[in-house]
Design brief:
homodimer, 612 residues, alpha+beta, Aldehyde Ferredoxin Oxidoreductase,  A, domain 1, Aldehyde Ferredoxin Oxidoreductase Protein, subunit A, domain 2, Aldehyde Ferredoxin Oxidoreductase Protein, subunit A, domain 3, 6-stranded mixed beta sheet
């Protein structure tokens, strides 16, 4: 019997300059769906856990999913590799247009192995695939690369690239797409993996419409949901993700002074409202998105004149703003653009600079270490200067570009006290003290501290999911049941990242059944909700198993001691400390993981995962 | 005005072979009392925090206190140095007769600096002080050294010595006294400090009665308390500390299978009751003690025939028995004797072997690594063989002799999961899940995981202290108020270790007022309860400050993740997980420590401690 749904994968070996194509058959795509699920399967099976993330044995996997490029809105793709930042499972999900365009070439994913000796970029134009010299692009920033390649090849290409930071193997560098309408696979240092392979960019252009098995059914279903997706998330549409700054500061979720404080009376100055009234020029969308949360900003005057393009997202405002106490929106917009151009993760950058500011306050870093810049809290010039140093791998930036975990280990002593990360990944701008589920989620997320791997907090602030058994909004400070809740949501989010679709669609009323229906309409399968959720569980467990092979166990499923023991003290989450121990035990029990946090054989058999 | 109470200190420089005497005047003794308090003052002021604990800059301080050698029963002395096991504050308190005898020489303490090139021992006979060659003692075990020196010099000397383990700089070696009636400064690796100085022994003999300012008043007060000290702690008297095995297993306090399980049906086989019916020969006392908890045992037949001398204490039974699942009392008695002879800490040894057994179960240590011995749980032969290897610094023992923290770091990966220690010191045989105060106590104790530094658990099981505001027995699983409770008890225990007196006197009805009265009677002071408790607080904070200078901060005030997140599951403490975060915040607040866990300037000023 022929497969109803398979995925064509491009295999590129940069050492041998070899290009192959192979298909992933239905028995695999049905179990691992696509996106980060399929990528997990490939990384797990084809690499040893102890490889050097920056060596030629690491794979760099770009993987779209069944939804990407179809009429389902908000499709995405994942980038996966062993992370040079954390030494474990590395993934990042990206919106924009690149994933859609990849699917239109006829390929669902690209697995890149080996390393080129000289800079190259990969060119995929439908079936025409070339490894092209990129010496003339080396050193260019992401905005420039996008522009040069479009001028050279045509405006209808979509470019994923690394900036100078990825070239220099900076461990907090990412892979960026869509030029000035910037979208990024920012987390986990995947830019450095591309840099280690001397891969400057991957250019895609396609004209093939991805196959949809039941096209009419899909159209009909989408027609029903699109109006609510367009109407419900008004604040997100009007103010972008920056709409969260004010409410998150109020509920005690916003990082303030490197996670030391509970309130910040300057939050308004860097809010979505402030942006809308000042530097906002317009907004931009990912493929097919009816919301369009991306901000276009422009600064024409003053010290930050010249900024033009993507504006800062909530996470950027949280880490560079709140956590560094920088209340200058224009400076953050400039800093954000620099990060996009250099190709570095704004979360890691903000986290590292807040860390440096605390080290400076404590006398562990001196002004001369920072090239004469005062790293006092709130200094916008320090933010800008440190980003230049990080992006160029110079001065103190060389240390900070290693990420907070490594930087703190190199400084040692008290610096270990205030390096705010889990498993080496800096915290995004949501405080585990404001939601117990976020605490458990950061502690157990496979890529390290990440709110998107569980996305549980939105179900503790407004959303429900009757299909998963959560008909009521969950209690953020509750304890009982959090283990099961977080595990289920993590499984679901694995599906989002495999299909792959934006999690913000939840705000537009998209339900688990919608996702499953669409998957069945596209693939022609008749998958049940149970099988669907089990695929999510399988994907999560496989990533965990990858991490276990890298040395991860219960001891790593934790949070910085500051977060476990130091209250915010003021504001909306003044007195909560997440009871991680209790929740973790319940979580392991629900997941059927053993006392070390390793999936039991029973569970792995049930999920049809083979131990390597 | 002449000091009412000063302490004469012997200063020995082993590099320069120089001996000096100086006096600590009343402004110091009144603030730091004696014992580990005075030793803390000296170590803090006279050494840099970053010295090599096994280098000649480390000090090895023996310090008795105002009570030692007086008619107050159960006097002790402390041994203090920077710990080669933990790299931070190291102290151990010892009973027996050595402290008393030191005081009778006229000296209250000995501060040893530098290192000898050839083995030496220090001889103090009243005012006659010599550094003597000890080449002929090098390699001898502690029982032998005691015997040889007594045969040579006289039966009335008291010997503190190191065994072959201390000579070989094994980091879990201690300093032992009183030959076969063994008492030990076992914890923190102080034997290796002596070994690094090539100091085999310190021999004391004295005939001077320590001065008591109000002799009659002291006599009268003691006359009132002695009967209750003799009568109340019957189980302790009859069964030794081993009396705790059965009740502690029942309440979920006893370590089982490296802290993984909640019940052990073999506990009776290694209990005090079992010992009393089988190998018990008699008991022995520390100086002036009306209880006499020391066990004399003898084994005449079978594989462990030949054992004769000190029997295993509760801690030894907990770690070598319960934690290794060894239910053979005779084997543990043999193992205990071997530890006394080699001069190693039975707690660290039991902890390290239980750790090795778990590593063996997980396949991280193979049979061939262990010299062909099967490290299966409960194997008594493995216990014996590993102790030989540790004592001799050979084979796997070389690794285990580094202590569980270092051993786990060297093995890496999953081994880090089950290394049960705080700040590098292996857990004694009390489970933080059975008493929340013990959790907070282990996390904040200055020498690492230790129940004796707070001794709080006894106030959660029977004892009260109205003078400190605890008229009722405290709730072991309670949360509110634990911060203050633990801090106060730690301050009090600093006084016990400075006076220095055995904490078991609490079981005999000795109160805080008794201690204060006796101190005032001995010194002629008129110290108030407030001043007294403040001295305890000063001492605790000074030790903390020493640790802060060594790099300790909030991040280190924690427990192994197994203890924080994994329930015992069965037995008397089946479901409790200590809420460390909440308690720690309250504790810092009460102590007036800052957010990093560093004593505030305000607090240090109040305590008249100068920052170095």
């Amino acid at each position: 019997m022929q497969d109803k749904y398979s995925e064509k994968i491009l295999r590129v070996n940069l050492t041998e300059k070899k290009i192959e194509t192979h298909s992933l058959s239905e028995d695999i795509t049905r179990k691992y769906i696509g996106g980060s699920g399929l990528a997990a399967k490939i990384l797990y099976e084809e690499t040893f856990p102890n490889i050097d993330p920056l060596g030629e044995d690491n794979l760099l996997i770009f993987m779209a999913g069944p939804f990407t490029g179809t009429p389902v809105p908000c499709g995405r793709h994942s980038v996966v590799a062993k992370s040079p930042l954390t030494g474990i499972w590395g993934e990042a999900s990206v919106g924009g247009y690149w994933g859609k365009e990849l699917k239109r070439t006829g390929y669902g994913g690209i697995v890149i192995k080996g390393s080129s000796e000289e800079p190259v970029y990969l060119y995929i134009d439908n079936g025409e695939i070339e490894i092209r010299g990129a010496g003339y692009l080396w050193g260019k920033d992401n905005y420039e690369v996008d522009q040069v390649l479009k001028e050279e090849i045509g405006k209808d290409i979509v470019v994923s690239s690394i900036g100078p930071a990825g070239e220099k193997l900076i461990r907090i560098s990412g892979i960026f797409t869509d030029g000035k309408d910037s979208r990024a696979a920012a987390r986990c240092g995947l830019g450095a993996v591309a840099g280690s392979k001397k891969l400057k960019a991957v250019v895609v252009r396609g004209s093939k419409k991805p196959k949809v098995f039941y096209e009419e059914k899909l159209k009909k279903s989408l027609k029903e949901i699109i109006p609510s997706m367009r109407e419900i998330p008004k604040r997100l549409k009007n103010l972008g993700t920056a709409n969260l700054v004010i409410p998150c500061e109020q509920i005690g979720d916003f990082p303030i002074k490197n996670w030391r404080e509970g309130e910040w009376d300057k939050a308004e100055r860097i809010s979505g409202e402030e942006m809308a009234e000042t530097i906002l020029l317009g907004h931009y969308h990912c493929a097919g998105c009816p919301i369009g949360c991306g901000r276009k900003v422009k600064i024409s005057e003053g010290p930050y004149a010249g900024v033009e393009g993507a504006g800062p997202e909530y996470e950027t405002l949280g880490l560079m703003g709140g956590s560094c106490l920088v209340d200058n929106l224009e400076a953050i917009a400039k800093a954000n653009e620099l990060c996009n151009r250099y190709g570095i993760d704004t979360i890691e950058v903000g986290g590292a600079i807040a860390f440096a500011m605390e080290a400076y306050e404590r006398g562990l870093i001196k002004k001369e270490d920072a090239g004469g810049v005062s790293l006092r809290w709130g200094n916008p010039e320090a933010l800008i200067e440190m980003i230049h140093q990080i992006g160029e791998g110079k001065g103190l930036g060389k240390l900070l570009g290693e990420g907070v975990a490594r930087a703190s280990q190199k400084i040692g002593g008290l610096a270990l006290e205030f390096a705010i990360h889990s498993k080496g990944l800096a915290f995004p701008a949501h405080d585990p003290r404001a939601y117990n589920s976020i605490a458990l989620g950061y502690a157990t997320s496979n890529r390290g501290a990440c709110h998107l791997q569980g996305f549980t907090h939105v179900f503790e602030r407004g959303l429900t999911s009757p299909e998963l058994g959560y008909s009521k909004v969950q209690e953020p400070f509750g304890q009982v049941g959090k283990g099961e809740f977080v595990a289920k949501l993590q499984n679901l989010m694995c599906l989002f990242d495999s299909l792959a679709i934006c999690k913000f669609t939840l705000f537009g009323g998209v339900s688990v059944s919608n996702l499953l229906d669409w998957l069945n309409f596209i693939t022609g399968w008749n998958m049940s909700l149970e099988e669907f959720m089990k695929a999510g569980e399988r994907i999560f467990n496989l990533k965990r198993l990858y991490n276990v092979n890298c040395g991860v166990s219960r001891k790593d499923d934790t949070l910085p001691f500051r977060i476990l023991t130091h209250k915010r003290g003021k504001g909306g989450a003044a007195n909560n400390l997440p009871p991680l121990g209790r929740m973790l035990g319940e979580y392991y029990e629900y997941r059927k993981w053993n006392e070390y946090g390793i999936p039991s054989n029973e569970k792995l058999n049930d999920l049809e995962i083979k131990i390597k």
